[in-house]
Amino acid sequence: SALILMRNKGAVKPLRLLQLFFQLMAVVPDKNLRESLYHHIVNDIRNINKNGKRDENLNRTIQSFFHRIVVASAADATPGGEDSPADYAAKRAVQMTCDLYRRNVWND
Known about the structure:
By secondary structure, this protein is mainly α. About 75% of the residues lie in helices and about 0% in strands.
């Protein structure tokens, strides 16, 4: 929660915090913490884009970060193997993209 407070005060850049939260989300076994990280990331991106102050450069950077996660997971995928942390991160990146599209944040 300290990192979230620092992000709200502007001390931590949103993309750096997003990368850190994705790394944590991929390796932490606690489901409640993963859900909390997921909801914070989605809400942070929503808050960045609300009230007509869309930051297109940041949106493109975040979207390309999500794309890199999915591509890296697809490159490392083994058929019939068990899910790795990269697979989990890719699944959540796709879910976040769908969620932000459904909420009309990213509709381009």
